[in-house]
Specification:
Elements (H helix, E strand, L loop, with lengths): L6 E2 L5 E2 L33 H12 L3 H22 L13 H9 L6 H14 L2 H23 L4 H19 L20 H11 L28 H19 L10 H9 L5 H13 L4 H18 L6 H19 L16 H10 L42 H13 L1
Length: 419
């Protein structure tokens, strides 16, 4: 075979010949210059905002099935946190600031009724003596930790979700007195209504894996944009109805006469200033001073914002905006009005309403893909609509192969000879 002479530029340097591209060249990944590539990638030259943003969008843009599992894990983490908080020394004390005394003080106020009588009977039965208090409090803590661990394990997810829905009723009725919504003179969304335990119950139902992993969604429940909570027991409509009732109902609580007092919100924040760490105390005092005498105007603005969050989420065109505003408002309420759930006071039993409300918003967030469905296992089509070369099996989904054809092998041979 005659030796081919390489092409030479006008400066006398060899120039590689241009090879004819194969019809499969589009499927051949570009070569990476490993000599110049940094082993640390984007981190080699410091922080790369573009790379960080790409990683975030890739993480955020995963389908609803992946996000459903993420939210289940987050719910499990909240249950584990609640269980650990139940082991605090204040939960085993019997002083005036103990858990039992606090529950009786705040959840049985007002005129006696069926709910207050039931709470008084339950607390007296479970915390009536030191022995009963130790046994019940320890069992309660272990139960919540077990629910959280069960949600972290895929095999026990269904059982743990069922236990989560059932157990959430106990703290919501006894520990929170139905979110204290029967005592509207002390209840506002900024203070934690309608109760974190109710959100645990709703999340357990919304994230329930109703459909088997291989089942496809019906046309009615499978629009172009799916949410992580669409495949649960509540469905999309049920979860949206609860979102509307939660925000709309708490907006109506702002219309109570006591909440319209000029110093209502300022008094609530001033009371919180005596609790928590220093930075929260300073924030509460600053906010209390700023809102002094403006309770009526603030209550009106909060009511209108919460009503808009409730109604705008019902329309697909404004749903994402309403969920975003709901997340922001929930975080502000959690920091300013709920002092991070009182986690630093030694008497908190849960992180309050902020975190579970954010999880509910993420469960309703429209995403691509259907929860409970697996990605397609179909192999990608061959280029140009043709068939893959004889003797070559098609690549796996997401895998790109380098296809060597007769033309490309001949071109490579000529290039080697010219070298």
């Amino acid at each position: 075979m005659p030796r081919m002479r390489p092409a030479v530029s006008h400066q006398g340097t060899p120039v590689a010949r241009r090879q004819t591209q194969s019809p499969y060249a589009a499927h051949v990944p570009a070569a990476t210059d490993h000599a110049t590539a940094s082993p640390l990638g984007d981190r080699a030259g410091g922080a790369n905002p573009a790379g960080t943003w790409r990683r975030f969008t890739s993480w955020w843009g995963t389908d609803a099935r992946v996000w459903r599992r993420r939210l289940v894990v987050a719910l499990g983490a909240l249950w584990i946190l609640d269980g650990l908080l139940q082991f605090q020394p204040s939960m085993y004390s019997r002083g005036p600031d103990s858990f039992a005394a606090t529950v009786l003080q705040y959840n049985t106020m007002g005129r006696p009724n069926l709910l207050t009588n039931f709470i008084r009977f339950t607390v007296t039965l479970t915390y009536g003596s030191s022995t009963h208090q130790i046994v019940f409090n320890t069992l309660s803590a272990l139960t919540q930790v077990a629910i959280g661990v069960g949600l972290l394990v895929r095999r026990t997810e269904r059982t743990a979700l069922a236990a989560s829905a059932c157990w959430a009723v106990v703290p919501w009725v006894v520990g929170e007195a139905l979110g204290q919504m029967l005592f509207p003179q002390t209840t506002m969304a900024i203070t934690g209504a309608p109760g974190a335990a109710l959100l645990y119950l709703v999340l357990s139902l919304a994230l329930w894996p109703r459909r088997p992993p291989s089942a496809s969604s019906s046309s009615e429940d499978a629009p172009s944009s799916r949410a992580a909570g669409d495949g649960g027991l509540l469905g999309r409509r049920g979860a949206l109805v609860f979102w509307c009732l939660a925000w709309g109902g708490t907006a109506l609580l702002e219309l109570e006469r006591a909440n319209w007092a000029p110093n209502a919100i300022s008094a609530q924040l001033r009371e919180l200033a005596s609790q928590g760490p220093g930075f929260l105390t300073a924030l509460d005092r600053l906010t209390s001073t700023a809102t002094l005498g403006h309770g009526t105007e603030i209550a009106l603005v909060l009511a209108l914002v919460q009503l808009w969050i409730a109604t705008a989420a019902l329309r697909p065109a404004t749903r994402t905006t309403a969920l975003t505003v709901g997340i922001v408002v929930s975080v502000v309420y959690w920091v300013v009005g709920q002092n991070l759930g009182g986690l630093f006071t030694g008497t908190a039993t849960d992180p309050n309403l902020g975190p579970p409300m954010v999880l509910l918003a993420l469960a309703l967030w429209p995403r691509a893909g259907a929860p409970g469905t697996e990605p397609s296992n179909a192999a990608p089509a061959a280029p140009d609509g043709g068939a893959w070369p004889k003797g070559r099996r098609s690549p796996a989904p997401g895998q790109r192969w380098s296809i060597t054809t007769g033309a490309s092998r001949a071109a490579a041979s000529r290039s080697g000879c010219s070298a």
